[in-house]
Amino acid sequence: MNSRPQSIDVFYTKKGGSNIKAQLGYRMNGSSSYDRLETISDGDRATSTWKMSWPCKSAVGLIKVQGQGTFETPSATFPGC
Fold first, then answer.
1. C-beta separation of 9 from 40 below 8 A
2. Exposed/middle/buried for 60, CB within 10 Å: 0-12, 13-18, 19+?
3. How far apart are CA 59 and CA 27, in angstroms?
4. For 18-53, b where at least 16 C-beta lie within 10 A, e where not — what string?
5. Maximum separation of any 2 CA atoms in the chain, in Å
């Protein structure tokens, strides 16, 4: 996950295994937001971006994989906070 002053970028690169159906998302202040459901194949890089005003809070990147659950990144803090 990358955090910039005006957005959050969550990305996932699939390195092996079969296709998955997943949604990228983030959690901030106890609230989660997810992007569309997509199929991610071996070698694909999925990216989702959310635009927002400078929230000055930490956020966690999420990937919700159908049939496998939700996984998260380490927390990232916005620059300048």
1. no
2. middle
3. 6
4. eebebbbbbbbeeeebbbeeeebeeeeebebebeee
5. 40
pLDDT at 34 over 80: yes
Give the contacts of 60 (CB within 8 A, at least 6 positions apart): 1, 26, 27, 28, 72, 73, 74, 75, 76
Give the pLDDT of residue 20: 96
Q: Which of 68, 71, 36, 50 is nearest to 2 (CA)?
A: 50
Task: Please compute the mean of the pLDDT values over residues 56-72 and round it to a whole number.
Answer: 92
